[in-house]
Amino acid sequence: SEYVIKNIQWTTGNNFTVERGLQQIEEVISAWEIHESWLHWSEFLQEEDLKDTKRYHYRVCWSMPTRRKPIPRSTANVYFVIEISKIKPATSPVEVFFTLESSKLIHRPDQCRFREKWLKDIIENKIILME
Predict the structure, then answer these.
(1) 112 in a structural domain
(2) What is the pLDDT of residue 69?
(3) Where are the transmembrane segments (predicted)?
(4) Count of domains forming the chain
(5) Which one of 12, 24, 89, 92 has the largest count of C-beta atoms within 10 Å of its C-beta?
(6) Which domain covers residue 95, as residue numbers?
């Protein structure tokens, strides 16, 4: 079957709040095909005021605790940026991007199929480094 990316109706610049941004990020990750054993928590990190935009930075921290190891050996972070243009009309939707920890590749949630393997790879690489 063909995968369909869930289309999120992003809030507009004039309706944006840090809390609304967090809610919409949760909405995005709820559509990702990730096994239910993965747990996550999300947080707002900082606001960045640039010449033409304002950027709001968030982090979603993932882990896979088990009965044998309730405290996971490592975690994987996904960093989101919500960008509000100072040039476009305030009624324009915000732009949303995310990157994975240890990667510079920028993804757009509405154009990318998230892979659970990305989280596993980050955690496996950290464990190898620790050992």
Answers:
(1) yes
(2) 86
(3) none
(4) 1
(5) 24
(6) 18-130
* Angstrom distances, CA of residue 40 to CA of 17, 32, 64, 84, 114: 21, 13, 9, 26, 15
Question: What per-residue confidence (pLDDT) applies to 110?
Answer: 87
pLDDT < 50 stretches in the chain: none
* Residue 73, pLDDT score: 87
DSSP letters of the chain? ---------PPBGGG--HHHHHHHHHHHHHTS---TT-EEEEEEEEEEE-SSEEEEEEEEEEE---SS-SS-S--EEEEEEEEEESSS-TTSBPEEEEEETT----B-GGG----HHHHHHHHHHHHHHH-
Q: In what order do the strands lie in the sheet with 53-63?
A: 39-49, 53-63, 76-85, 95-100
* Per-residue confidence (pLDDT) for residue 3, from 0 to 100: 59
Indicate whether 56 belongs to any domain. Answer: yes
